Amino acid sequence: MKNPHHHSKKEFQVERLVFFSDAVFAIAITLLVIEIKIPEIEGPVISEHTFMELFALLIPKFLGFVLSFFIIGLNWFIHHRMFGYVINYNGKLIWLNLLFLFSIVLMPFSTALYSEYSSPAYIHLITPYSIYVFNICLTGIMNFLLWSYIGNPKNKLAEDLPEGDFLKLAKVRSLLLPSVFVISLLTAIFINPVIGRFVLFLIPVIMSMVRNKKEIKTI
Predict the structure, then answer these.
(1) Beta bridge partners of 86
(2) Where are the domains of the chain?
């Protein structure tokens, strides 16, 4: 679709796209903590032991919040860097970005579902974790599509993209996190749900393996 706006307005329109995206990220990351409810205590008197038991029930939810907080934060950082190269826009870019943001606003829901059923009594349930992993995969795929579309010179949407393997590495890293979550899910299904969760600890190690010093200098 041909851009209907005058050249002088393109920069402003791109900024509107970025500002809208930032607002969605901010709302999604705020909604995460809202799902952590304060323990409800019945009766006028309660012991310290009872309170700690109730508070311990929040640990799975808090861990889910921390995990999703950093995942959303990482995606915001990637989105921020990606659109730092964008100088133009079109209808397809807008829709790709909206679909990417759709996966972000789903995160509070999928996190709440996953966290609610991550306690020892429910950790054997696979469906809640599958929904969460699906959300992560959707975000990664949309991230990959955005990099592919923006980085294509034929679309004339970006300038000053670093040369070399920068774009290739960015696309690989967009699928890296979803891949680890898929491995985690498969491990939970076929081996053990608890061991499947521990696979996620490989994320920092694998991310460091594909880190490129040249890419870091371009940030």
Answers:
(1) 158
(2) 7-35+46-218
With tokens 């699906």, the residue in question is: 134
- List the one residue out of 176, 186, 168 whose CA is nearest residue 206: 176
Give 136-153 pLDDT, tens digit per residue: 999 999 999 999 999 999
Which whole-number Å values give the CA distances from 195 to 30, 189, 200, in the listed order? 30, 10, 9
Maximum distance among all Cα pairs of the chain, rounded to whole angstroms: 69
By three-state DSSP, how is residue 125 classified?
A: coil
User: Over 90: is that where the pLDDT of 185 sits?
Assistant: yes
Q: Is 212 helix (H, G, I), strand (E, B) or coil?
A: coil
SS3 86: strand
pLDDT of residue 44: 66
List of residues 6+ apart from 57 with CB closer than 8 A: 39, 119
Instruction: Say if residue 125's pLDDT is above 60.
Output: yes
pLDDT score, position 119: 84
User: pTM of the entire structure?
Assistant: 0.87
Whether the CA torsion 133, 134, 136, 141 is positive or negative: it is positive
Q: Which of 149, 179, 136, 39 is nearest to 83 (CA)?
A: 149
3-state secondary structure 178-194: HHHHHHHHHHHHHCCHH
